[in-house]
């Protein structure tokens, strides 16, 4: 029973005679906080580097991002959007 109490308490701070107990953050959340955020680019910037980054033509990247309603996003998000766009059937 005491082990559980010890695991839940990570640090204690005294403030004006009161003790506040902070709980541990789940490891997945802690890792997310430590990783730097991926940069955000405009659709124009992403389309300009379409061949090198996505292996697709500039027009395809522009069309994919426009269809998704994205004016700016990360490279990984744009890659997912472009891949899905290129896989769509033409009807």
Layout of SSEs?
Blueprint: H1 2-8, E1 11-15, E2 18-22, H2 27-34, E3 41-42, H3 43-48, H4 50-54, H5 58-68, E4 72-73, H6 75-87
Antiparallel strand pairs: 1-2, 3-4
Helix pairs in contact: 5-6
Please describe what this structure looks like.
The chain is an alpha+beta fold and 91 residues long. It has a domain at 41-87. It is built from six helices and four strands. The strands form two sheets. The chain has a two-stranded antiparallel ribbon with strand order 1-2. A two-stranded antiparallel sheet has the order 3-4. A hairpin with a 2-residue loop joins strand 1 and strand 2 (18-22). Helix 5 packs across helix 6 (75-87). The longest helix is centred in the C-terminal third of the chain and has 13 residues, at 75-87. The N and C termini lie far apart (64 Å).
Summarize the structure.
The chain has 91 residues and is of the alpha+beta class.
